[in-house]
Amino acid sequence: MAGQLRIIAGQWRGRRLSVATAAGLRPTADRNRETLFNWLQGDLQGARVLDLFAGTGALGLEALSRGAASAVFIERNRRVADALKAALIQLDAADRARVVIDDALRFLKRPPDGGFDLVFIDPPFHSVLLASVVPMLTKAEWLNPGAQIYLESASAPVLPDAWYVRRHQSAGGVWYGLAVIG
User: Which DSSP state fits 56?
Assistant: First the structure.
């Protein structure tokens, strides 16, 4: 454990959590998270959240802090997932969240146990995983009507016809946006 994550707003505003370090692990920058959650203002209360490439859990934890009802975190690195579980216990949020130690692509091949209102897709940078994950989300009942999907990558991704980008920005060589199912 070497890093720290700061919750920006909500119930746990200002809380700092220890996070594991791992090769390629880069949490979404505070400034980008703040912008994203400003976009989502009013849409988080009671939301069911899926954080597909959880890493430190920065996005899912921020959503829970701001009123999401539940979150499922998918992380394939056991050490990183264990640190995320410890953070949930520290925040007394283990009853509202589940950490699944698995690969996101393998996880999405399973039948969903209900749809999600908000999905965070922030795969390892410069990977092709985003292009693989997006179609998988549209084939099963992973998304509730009106679901929003946060995407983060080096450039604007190609999205299914039924999706449209509601908001987007670029900062520090990162494109990030919020897509909505039309």
Answer: T
Could you tell me how far CA 92 lies from the centroid of its own chain?
A: 19
| Statement: the pTM of the whole predicted model exceeds 0.90 | yes
Torsion of CA 179, 24, 102, 63, to 10 degrees: -40
Q: How far apart are CA 48 and CA 69, in angstroms?
A: 6
Please report which helix (H) or strand (E) contains residue 116, including its range: strand 116-121
Q: What ranges in 29-180 are assigned the alpha helix state H?
A: 30-39, 58-65, 78-90, 104-108, 129-139
Phi-psi region of 68 (alpha: psi -120 to 50; beta: other; left: phi over 0): beta
At residue 171, what is the residue type? A
Return the structure tokens found at 57.
């859990």
User: Would you say 148 and 142 are in contact if contact means Cβ atoms under 8 Å apart?
Assistant: no
Q: pLDDT tens for residues 96-119?
A: 999 999 999 999 999 888 899 999
For the chain, the domains span 3-181
Express each pLDDT in 5-58 by its tens digit.
899 999 999 998 877 777 666 667 778 889 999 999 989 999 999 999 999 899
Q: Which CATH architecture has domain 3-181?
A: 3-Layer(aba) Sandwich (3.40)
